[in-house]
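I am hoping you can look over what I have pasted underneath with an eye to the fold:
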Amino acid sequence: MQCPKCNTFNSEDSQFCKKCATSLTGERAAQPSFTKTLETPSKGIIPGTMFASRYKIIEELGRGGMGVVYKAEDAKLKRTVAIKLLPPELTGDKEAKERFMREAQSAAVLDHPNICTVYEVDESQDKTFISMAFVDGQNLRDRIKAGPLEINEGLDLAVQAAEGLAAAHSKGIVHRDIKSANIMVTKQGQVKIMDFGLAKFTGASMITREGVTMGTVAYMSPEQAQGNPVDHRADIWSLGVVLYEMFSGRLPFPGDSEASILYSVVHEEPKPIKTIKPGIAPELLQIIDRALKKKPESRYQSAGEILKDLSRYHDRLRMEEAGAFTFGSFLQRLRKPKIAIPAVIIVIALCSLAYWYFNRRAKERWARQDLLPQIEQLLTAETPNYWAAHELAAKAEKYVPDDPIFKHLLGRISREEKLSSNPTGAKIYAKPYADVGSDWRYLGNTPADRLRLPRGFSRIKLEKVGFRTVYDIAWVSWAVSDTLPYKLPEAGSLPADMELLPDASNWYNWEAAPAGIHMPGLEHLETEQVGDFLMDRYEVTNEAYKSFVDAGGYQNPKYWKHPFVKEGRTLDWKEAMALLTDRTGRPGPATWEVGDYLDGKDSYPVSGVSWYEASAYAEFAGKSLPTIFHWDRVALTWASPAIVPLSNLNGDGPLPVGSSQSMNRFGICDLSGNVREWCLNESTRGGRFILGGGWNDPAYAFNDAYAQTEFDRSETNGFRCIKYLESEENRASLEKTIEMPFRDFLCEKPVSDATFTLFLNQYAYDKTRLNAVIESSKEEEEWIREKVTFDAAYGNERMMAYLFLPKKGNPPYQTVVYFPGSEAIHGRSSESLGPASFLLKSGRAFFYPIYKSTYEREDDLKSDYATETNFWKEHVIMWAKDLSRSIDYLETRDDIDAKKLAYLGASWGAAMGGIMLAVERRFKAAVLYVAGLEFRQAMPEADPINFLPRIKTPVLMLNGKYDFFFPYETSQLPFYTLLGTPKENKQIFVYEGGHSVPSTQLIKETLAWLDRYLGPVTR
């Protein structure tokens, strides 16, 4: 039949022209309505400017119908991102905009190696934008322009794309715009599917163009092209189109217009690939053919199905390339029927063995060539992803368990733990702490003696029929105990809103920094026996507190057990109650009105309560306020980097209890943020402790030991309760007044210059002969390690040190002298110590002295916490002399440039830098990794407050914002402020994190600092 409009000949049964889609029955065919190509602004954001307060625009990456994409730096999290500005047409009306935000936010929960991560969906300057991971690579469409892909390469990319789709579909998220332009391939060959959430928003009724108008239309499924409802099977069709395109170099449904393409999609079959590119195996052709079935029910019904077929064919292809043979090809060579049956049996056995062998070899190569590099990449990322590396390692362990590289990586990824429960037989589950929405991974049953968990913090869950499910945080670190004992309460045996905290459980006391309370300034307290106790899972709510008010709690003196003291004067009952009223003068919290909370705030934490009101409610409820010992046991402030980002700190207002996803020990929620929580103990500096910080406090407040006067009724003040289960014999010690050694360093006055000169005299020593000996020399791939010994400056002792010399570089070498963290105090052998390898790679030498009290030079010193004793002072002096004696040795070597030395201190060594750099003036630069001032007092001859102002060396400080040893506001900033180094020669970087900084930033900033003050290294 000839088209009346364009004269194209069509088949007799055609209703529409295949070229122009004109009706062949006399009327114009109904077609999908198309929007015009969306116009993009002619002017974009100027590179170098800030967008949305936190993104520094680097460059424009591209623009099209779906908006403009920029490369940017997230100034808050210090990472490179891609910012996509959506055209106003896409979110023009309120309903469409709300739908888009919902879809994009749902896509943001996807966490898979083959899906580009969405970080944020928001608005700024009337622009809707998405912040996502920056993918450095090439999209698949551009890659195909050079011609069809080789089968192996194409299959590898296809398998990865199918894995990404399967992960998204499992979360109920459909892409709806899978095309080669939306599939990025990184330089390492990793597939990243882009724009989840965007295409779903556009749906089937709105076709937008990106660059080439035909692109999106050519990948549409028939049901999508016809405007019918679509589901995940539309993505499978689109993937089939991409597969066709990859292996043929062309699209299966070409056309001169959108209408002709859509007609072809709905009514015609694609040209067979084998006529375009002969030699493609039937198995692959069948996969593509099934994916491109017109009817959704005839296609693959899930991404998992097509993934299975692609993976099976890919594995078989690898085996064949490895030299495997098939039973059929061998059987055809048989010529003697009388031996056929035995031969068949032998061949079957041999083929089975060969299949197993070559399949095993293929899997081993896959593990070594693919998995191990991926694991290394995850571990060396700016923020190491131990969980993802752990799960890849579980796959690799099946095939290369004895590989030395794998064993080395495994030690960096995870550790074996012992986990037990009473009763036994509980199922153990775990998942990443931050990945709240991910599925629990089943790990086995209790008792488990070799339970491998990834490093860092994980959520764990123990389940057993008839018993309450127990939740906890598992902390895997070299520094803490590897035994995790749990007690499972019988179902119904405890109040539904409280959790059991058994004293027998592991309380994660860090061996390198033992402390009774894990908050800066309170580490000196001895550990107290708390016994088993219960704690409210959430803060006390408005609804719960209302029961106290309605029961006449403010009129009944029996609940008010403590004398009312205000500004040193004891108040009588009437005076006190007159102060404890709401906004309208009725009895109740300061945030209430007319004796009641605001509508809709039932499940919000009660706030605006004084310590007296919190204590009275606890008495009414038959409970107690927690002591700081109870609160600290549950909080796990060590885990601040994991807990704080999920907490309601530095926010706009309180949240309903339990809604922030922040969990502490044993399923207790929101000890960090939302409202501050009153504790029982009084401080020697006045007031009662109120811990955890509230919604309007800075992020580091979770770690601070903070106290307020008992009558303080700030809108952030709330509380939760505990209940003792065992003997209360130790309550006096638990409820004692707490000595607060907190120091306001900026208000303290350093000693005079004359006095400081006297202090320095104690650090002086006689520069006698070193009698140095090179005890051993060991050559590694990138450096040579020399173990040297020489005379110490005191006590007729010998000290040792390790000198690492770079193989790349020219002597005399610039040299970095190291002062380690407190782990050195607890280590007993220095033989396995290595250098900061990035310094060797930069062409510099690395010198690691073995200081008094560390490794083989251990003595009675057990902690790096300062004490106001001669014992501590004498050790500080010995460490300074060890450092100076080390420089004396370096000055004797012709291959060391003794005029270009730098100090590198980590943690304990960084804090000691506040003294060492004032005593030893031969350093030209210093880098202090997580440094700050300790609140515990030392004798003035060993107190950094007297040394910091005398330091003139250029100093770089690298710190974590949520550091639990050195709080940002009260420890890090005073250290930096007191440094006597001229302002232009000192710098501090503070990163999102705890007692650490990202390794990439440590390397970047350290090398830049050394280049600046020691000069670039010539090699």
Observations:
- DSSP finds 29 helices and 34 strands in the chain.
- The domain at 389-492 is CATH 2.60.40 (Immunoglobulin-like).
